[in-house]
Amino acid sequence: MKSYDCDSSSESEDTSHAISRSMIQAPWMRGNVVGSNWGWQGGLPGSSSGPSSSTAALPDHQPPNYGTFSQEESQVPGRRTPLGAVGLGGFYFQGGQQNITTAPHGPPSDENIPDPACSGQNSRAESRGASSNANIKGKGRQGKSVRLNINARERRRMHDLNDALDELRSVIPYAHSPSVRKLSKIATLLLAKNYILMQANALEEMKRLIAYLQGTGGAAGSAIVAPPGFDLQGFPAAAKFLQQQQALQAENARHNDGNNEGGGSGSTM
DNA sequence: TAGGCCATCTGGTCCT
DNA sequence: AGGACCAGATGGCCTA
């Protein structure tokens, strides 16, 4: 006997997922990540080591169908990620309808709504019959709709988490190619951590270099200039730095001129 | 076929 | 009470 798992039949048929399955049919990255100089530090907690061992399968392989939600899912691209509500960005679009996350009781056609027609189609749900029974026997006196609401919330939460991971994948440098398998979750997190460390090191190195240049070229009185033919268009920070250097140079020149004039007049007097 | 990865359900805990 | 978060359990998919 299965309780209210019919919503979990969601997995049986899916319509859309963030990344299509075809995007990841190719073999796993094959060192694309590890090849970079900021690859893996330390091992994976709970797994053996690095991405080479984590032959990530895709999350997309099994189409999650969000129960009765699946139709909306296929039609509304931005269903997930209510993070914007907490100022964390992301997108959350409900086609002008109320926000699911903020209106837990009234999603227009959320998976929260038990679908009487979807029962008995999920092998997973069937396999979970024991736990469902336990739920019913134990504290599980929750109503069916309550349980479905909880399940739906948890599903959304995990989808939001996955969306955030996707965004993280999009900003960390690894081969973003359809022929390259998507990074696993753990690989994404570890890679991001290493990338941050690498950026921090690069920043420190840059600061030291700037300090060195200021200590040498500046002391000698020679302005730091960009090499001929060097286009600063793509380097706003460097352009700003050079601009500041030139302004500082001009200021020093004025100051020196003032000192010379004043000193000369004073000495003569 | 084993192992890795994942989605989902579920119950517990904590917070508002 | 309701929601968020977490961890365990379960089963599917994929690759070596």
From TrEMBL:
Transmembrane regions: none
GO molecular function: DNA-binding transcription factor activity, RNA polymerase II-specific; E-box binding; protein dimerization activity
Region of interest: Disordered: 1-145, 248-269
Compositional bias (Polar residues): 65-74, 119-135
Gene Ontology cellular component annotations, sorted alphabetically: nucleus
A Gene Ontology BP annotation from the UniProt entry: axon development
SMART domains on file: HLH
Keyword annotations: Nucleus, Transcription, Transcription regulation
Gly residues biased stretches: 260-269
Name the record gives this protein: BHLH domain-containing protein
Taxonomy of the source species: Eukaryota, Metazoa, Ecdysozoa, Arthropoda, Hexapoda
